[in-house]
């Protein structure tokens, strides 16, 4: 692994490849967590965060995916003072939380990247034989680089990418370009298979944008994804059928009509434009947060447009 395929401004299915993938996400907006679209029931997820607590990580996953991953691990620096099990030396220890397959490792020093690497490796070793996919997500690289320096962070990333590759896992690392100089960003780029610039603006002219967003069914899809960035096509069709027919109990025919329209016309067109991504095999639709921010979509959806439904 290693060697970027270049920047990707268009929509991406990050976990559609058969081999492990290392992705550098250039974005400072936490809303882009929606782009980490995985099948929760068949994925082990490890979240590494300096600023977010375990509760915040759990609430974010539940809000976006509706449920937690099969196994969720959290390495956090936000709860060290409250964790009785945290130790500043020796092997990083984990604490199981009640009510689900969730474990937490509390850390104290984001500059100690060797210790962080050990904590990540312990999770990967435990999950290597599981019949599930594994995703490691570093939700902000900047605090580690600030504490440990660019060279040390580069070495950490090099070992991280190699470790997840050997474990057949995926890794996504977010870096805020607004607070990181271009030279530093370019230093990290070669370590990753691909670099996704989530700050890039899609190239849609005014006529095409109006045509896409003026249609009632497509506007309904986008409004639904603003509220819940990932949703199954069946559920989306059921919501559309209720809305179109002004009823809480649409008929099977009404639901089928809505499903066919979404699957064959409206969702593919939005996907072609890079506004959503559509996993046909899993029948899941998600907002392409690497291209479109929720705030930007809200502005377009709030504007008066003709309805050509």
Automatic annotation (TrEMBL):
<dbReference type="Pfam" id="PF24035">
    <property type="entry name" value="DUF7344"/>
</dbReference>
<feature type="region of interest" description="Disordered">
    <location>
        <begin position="1"/>
        <end position="25"/>
    </location>
</feature>
<dbReference type="InterPro" id="IPR055927">
    <property type="entry name" value="DUF7504"/>
</dbReference>
<protein>
    <recommendedName>
        <fullName>DUF7344 domain-containing protein</fullName>
    </recommendedName>
</protein>
<dbReference type="Pfam" id="PF24336">
    <property type="entry name" value="DUF7504"/>
</dbReference>
<feature type="region of interest" description="Disordered">
    <location>
        <begin position="85"/>
        <end position="108"/>
    </location>
</feature>
<feature type="domain" description="DUF7344">
    <location>
        <begin position="211"/>
        <end position="286"/>
    </location>
</feature>
<feature type="compositionally biased region" description="Polar residues">
    <location>
        <begin position="85"/>
        <end position="96"/>
    </location>
</feature>
<dbReference type="InterPro" id="IPR055768">
    <property type="entry name" value="DUF7344"/>
</dbReference>
């Amino acid at each position: 692994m290693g060697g970027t395929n270049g920047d990707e401004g268009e929509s991406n299915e990050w976990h559609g490849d058969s081999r492990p993938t290392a992705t550098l996400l250039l974005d400072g907006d936490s809303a882009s967590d929606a782009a980490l679209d995985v099948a929760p029931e068949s994925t082990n997820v490890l979240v590494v965060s300096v600023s977010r607590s375990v509760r915040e990580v759990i609430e974010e996953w539940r809000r976006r995916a509706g449920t937690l991953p099969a196994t969720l691990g959290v390495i956090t620096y936000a709860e060290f003072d409250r964790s009785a099990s945290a130790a500043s030396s020796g092997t990083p220890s984990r604490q199981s939380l009640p009510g689900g397959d969730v474990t937490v490792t509390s850390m104290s020093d984001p500059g100690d990247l060797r210790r962080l690497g050990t904590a990540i490796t312990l999770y990967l070793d435990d999950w290597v034989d599981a019949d599930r996919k594994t995703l490691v997500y570093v939700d902000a690289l900047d605090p580690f680089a600030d504490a440990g320096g660019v060279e040390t962070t580069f070495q950490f990333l090099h070992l991280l990418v190699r470790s997840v590759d050997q474990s057949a896992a995926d890794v996504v690392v977010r870096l805020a370009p607004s607070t990181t100089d271009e030279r530093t960003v370019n230093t990290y780029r070669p370590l990753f298979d691909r670099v996704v610039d989530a700050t890039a603006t899609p190239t849609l002219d005014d006529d095409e944008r109006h045509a896409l967003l003026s249609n009632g069914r497509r506007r309904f899809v986008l409004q639904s994804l603003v509220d819940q960035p990932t949703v199954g096509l069946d559920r989306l069709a059921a919501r559309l059928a209720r809305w179109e027919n002004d009823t809480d109990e649409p008929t099977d025919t009404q639901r089928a009509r809505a499903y066919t329209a979404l699957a064959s016309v409206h969702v593919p067109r939005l996907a072609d434009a890079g506004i959503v991504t559509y996993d046909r095999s899993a029948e899941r639709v998600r907002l392409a947060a690497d291209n479109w921010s929720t705030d930007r979509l809200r502005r377009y959806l709030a504007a008066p447009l003709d309805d050509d439904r």
